[in-house]
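Most newcomers find our protein records easier to grasp once they have seen one. Sequence and backbone structure share a record, each on its own labelled line. To make this concrete, we reproduce a full record directly below:
***
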Amino acid sequence: MPGTTTLGAEVTNVSGHCIWILIDDEELALPYSEFPWFKAATIQQIISVLRSTADHLYWPDLDVDLSVESIRHPDRFPLRARCTFQPCHSPESPPQTH
């Protein structure tokens, strides 16, 4: 009787510089400098990763799709979206009220 093939991906570490993800027997780093969408994300958003195909990862809470090849070789994929993270405060002082 044939079994069900399951594809898995697991976030193994989150640091101040990158996240680490285990795909099959390979652990890959996703530095925030190359993958800025994860920098301001919560732990729950980061660990909620789906692997729909052998070369495709999706973070539904962040609406981020990545090919595994783009993680292995980010230099081959120079087009990337900008991070939309905005600081909660402005560098300017708030207006004075009298």
